[in-house]
Amino acid sequence: MRRMTARPANAHQARLLRLLRDGGPNSRAQLGDQVELSRSKLAVEIDRLLQTGLVVADGLAASRGGRRSHNIRLAPSLRFLGVDIGATSIDVAVTNAELEVLGHLTQPMDVREGPVAVFEQALAMAAKLRASGVAEGFDGAGIGVPGPVRFPEGVPVAPPIMPGWDGFPVREALSQELGCPVMVDNDVNIMAQGEQHAGVARAVRDFLYVKIGTGIGCGVVVGGEVYRGTNGSAGDIGHIQVEVDGRPCACGNRGCLEAYFGGSALARDAENAAREGRSAQLAARLDEGGELAARDVAAAATAGDAVALDLIREGGTRTGQVIAGLVSFFNPGLVVIGGGVTGLGHTLLAAIRTQVYRQSLPLATGNLPIVLGELGPTAGVIGAARLTSDHLFSPA
Amino acid sequence: MRRMTARPANAHQARLLRLLRDGGPNSRAQLGDQVELSRSKLAVEIDRLLQTGLVVADGLAASRGGRRSHNIRLAPSLRFLGVDIGATSIDVAVTNAELEVLGHLTQPMDVREGPVAVFEQALAMAAKLRASGVAEGFDGAGIGVPGPVRFPEGVPVAPPIMPGWDGFPVREALSQELGCPVMVDNDVNIMAQGEQHAGVARAVRDFLYVKIGTGIGCGVVVGGEVYRGTNGSAGDIGHIQVEVDGRPCACGNRGCLEAYFGGSALARDAENAAREGRSAQLAARLDEGGELAARDVAAAATAGDAVALDLIREGGTRTGQVIAGLVSFFNPGLVVIGGGVTGLGHTLLAAIRTQVYRQSLPLATGNLPIVLGELGPTAGVIGAARLTSDHLFSPA
DNA sequence: TCTACTTTCTCCACCATCAGGACAAAGATG
DNA sequence: CATCTTTGTCCTGATGGTGGAGAAAGTAGA
Fold it and tell me: Is the pTM of this model over 0.70?
């Protein structure tokens, strides 16, 4: 079961592997244009990579006016596993070396059931994907979990919404089970990396990925690399105060952003509105299901319900308030809004934009796009795969 | 006049120069312990550095149990100029290669008089220092200005409190005048670097330096390097909103932090208190000077005036509110409070600490020191000198 | 079809870098 | 005075890397 995937022997090889990952199959000549190596050196390094089996020859490239060059690509048998553990769901996907998704499964699952149950589930999903024929084994796996992680060890630390996960050796345990290297990170960070690799944040070096879902978190990318902070809790913006002496929050404080616009806060507000008869739509949904969730608000808003739209607008304004502060502080080149916000996307985006453009200084907002994520639920799994590929494609 | 200072030829040499700068004179053997080079290679690189004149031999080191090693130090004739242009003052200092201050001058000066007048003054101060014998010429100069800077070009961009500075080619102009390389940065960034080099932030990789003075700004250090953001405006926290629909601010918005606790806001609040007869101390000072400044509040607070103390406490609480948000987001390993806050230091610090420790999550605050800067007004000039030394001590 | 030109790739000679061993110099220890 | 440790230098061999020559494989035009 254990798969001993080769590793690049030096920085040049690592560089080439990443170029092939990010740019797809490429000719030797074109690779030569992108790296500052002599022809001879390049040939040597490529030969070595061919020997290790990490890359393979792939026919002839189109002529650029002379002799045709040989194409090179990453080994087509390489497989990465991307796992995105959300608060209420698990996403598992298999990608090839270019991080294209070959198979993707989603299942609802409450993260509070604990690491053992969750990983049993996740491993079953991975096995199912493998059985479907998209992969024979995995060369690396990336895992995103909804809480802070001590990154070098791959261990969750003091996760507020994940009782029972504190200190669980995710990396080690899964590495055992899967027989391949495993990297673990906060789910927001891997989503940010996903959007960076294949989504709206390509070619942006400093940006924020704000995820609005059950919780509210933020991936911070500095110079193209995820910034994790001293304890791995950077980007934990859900408990920034938006109202002095405001609503009590589960964290023990008052007035936190999540107390107003987290998944459960939104659901509660909606239920109140339904009970008080302010919204027929929401009331109908409440009767149907017995309780309301964030997605009910999204559905009602899409259907034009005024109260639901107001809830989203108000939440967007509050989120925008926080983001405005972060924009002033961080001066990013892009802000991406993501998470389980499909549907309520544009109303939310408009509210956030209004607030940020009004509150932050012109120099910081002047050329600042605020956009929705492009990848939706695949952002996480692609980012997870990328995390592990970054590790694999670095000198041993 | 132009001084052609040599530059290191490669990364090894740059590394050695920085070790000598940060650790002072050192023996060849000890340097060898700190870098991963073979003895032969090390000897070659040191010989080359000796040839360029950047370092000189400095006698014999103490024995470590065997043959005594030869000491090496940075050329004692190297001189850096550090200039810290504040909103209301200019600091100019000369340092040696180890960034020890050899001479330091301060003069009041309103930055609004424009770059020409300000630099005339600064150059006169530099000339005075040179005349006093501490330097014959400068090998590099670092300039801090109170506003955002497009760092690679060394040009202020859209500085709010510095009309007339927008686009002024500071780097080029001063490089001409001084005949040496010049680096320009935001003054908060250089103060952060100063505390990092010689103050409380030694050995911390990720930290925030919050400067409270005429304006309120924040230096952001990520992985030991200053983070400047996409437009060089990162750390501009003075205009983060602390009160919805709050006081109008000079920036055009409402409720900004600076509208409550910037230098002029503090002065105005104090004047109001004096006029309304709430504080005899402040009233007396107002009678004396005709107007009040932030330092009057500091003085009154030191003398025990209750109103002044309240003003500082309230400002500290508001600042703490903002910092709490930044701590959640950035998860720094240290927060340094600096600026012209001498005197009101501990009251302020207590208020900030209370607020941050109450509002931020335990994981982020658990091991987070919040301390006053160690260097006071020399932080800026040392940081400025360090900025230019970083540039000079990098491969050409 | 033939010639001239371009691009790609390999081979090779040559240079620079660097590690590590041998050894000498200089001092500590007893 | 003998032995051990540390430091510094010299030398050799290995490795890494550059760039030229030239073959291979193609295009373009006459």
Answer: yes
